[in-house]
Design a protein that fits this description.
With 286 residues, the protein is an alpha/beta fold. The chain has 11 helices and 9 strands. The chain folds into 2 domains: 63 residues; 201 residues, 3-Layer(aba) Sandwich (Rossmann fold), CATH 3.40.50. It starts with a helix and ends with a strand. Bound molecules: S-adenosylmethionine.
């Protein structure tokens, strides 16, 4: 097994995988139906024909660029396992900052009542479900334009035991919701990559992740512009708008929110790499 792993890691490295050794271990553990950590006590074992065949097939797909999360059918987010399929964006560690920023504000609100929030572009449901897990009184309306993604999100909510507190809605941003000030917060990790950036994206992302989850018009700002426009009428006075974005669009997105007469001055929080990542503003009280 040790030699098989070494050979595979070298091969994946030649195929330009980012983390070849880790990928090889995860795919072998999946083929053997065991945990990755268990491989370390089994290094001297010979892998039987059936798991070896499974492993070879997975490695072939990985070498062609298919992300490991899709091959495993799961990805960890905020220390929980989420089912993922090629219909949903693979949850990113950066998005945990969106969750933390939302929790910081919602915990305060939860002291006096049950917060109501909306998650726009829910994808796998990772943001909506994590917030519901962390705040037992929270109710979430989770919106998604892709019906196939909604199926995955609903499965994750069921599996993680929060389905009764999340309403999944198929819709285009906030347009399907009435213009009533219902929410204490609207959170979103919308698509924010400009079509102009397409040639710069890694192959694994461009070829395998859903383009509806990545791109938002030429400059990447279509969804953020629309959210800033649609959110005020659905937020309670003093309610929070929290949007994840990428460093490329950070200045332009901040200017869009700062230009809205309905919000107080926005703030930007950085991720662990010190890159601007979360845009936050409060609806004015009037
Ligand atoms: C960047 S992904 C985020 C997914 C998930 N919330 C996460 O953080 O991993 C954006 C999601 O928004 C959805 N989406 C794109 N345009 C939308 C729209 N106009 N209305 C609702 N959802 C949309 C995509 O299908 C995708 O699931």
């Amino acid at each position: 097994m040790g030699r098989l792993l070494k050979w595979t890691a070298d091969y994946l490295q030649q195929q330009k995988a980012d983390s070849p050794r880790l990928d090889a271990e995860l795919l072998l553990a999946q083929s053997l139906g065991c945990k990755r950590i268990e491989l370390y006590t089994r290094f001297d074992e010979v892998v039987a024909d059936e798991p070896r065949g499974k492993f070879r097939n997975l490695v072939k797909q990985r070498a062609s660029g298919m992300p490991v999360a899709y091959l495993l059918g799961r990805k960890e987010f905020y220390s929980r396992d989420f089912r993922v399929t090629p219909d949903v964006l693979i949850p990113r560690p950066e998005t945990e900052h969106l969750v933390i920023a939302a929790l910081d504000r919602l915990r305060e609100i939860a002291k006096t009542g049950a917060p109501q929030i909306c998650d726009v572009g829910t994808g796998s449901g990772c943001v909506a479900i994590t917030l519901a897990k962390e705040l037992p009184t929270l109710h979430v309306t989770a919106i998604e334009i892709s019906p196939a993604a909604l199926v995955v999100a609903a499965e994750n909510a069921e599996k993680l035991g929060v389905a009764e507190r999340i309403e999944f809605v198929e819709g285009d941003l906030l347009t399907t919701l009435p213009e009533t000030p219902a929410f204490d917060a609207i959170v979103s990790n919308p698509p924010y990559i400009g079509l102009v950036e397409k040639p710069t994206l890694p192959r694994d992302v461009l070829q395998f992740e859903p383009h509806g989850a990545l791109f938002s018009g030429e400059d990447g700002l279509d969804a953020i512009r629309a959210l800033v426009d649609q959110a005020p009428s659905r937020l309670k006075p003093g309610g929070w708008l929290l949007i994840e974005f990428g460093p490329v669009v950070a200045d332009a997105a901040t200017a869009i929110l700062a230009g809205s007469p309905h919000f107080e001055t926005p703030t930007v929080e950085k991720d662990l790499a010190k890159l601007p990542r979360i845009l936050i503003a409060r609806r004015k009280a009037n």
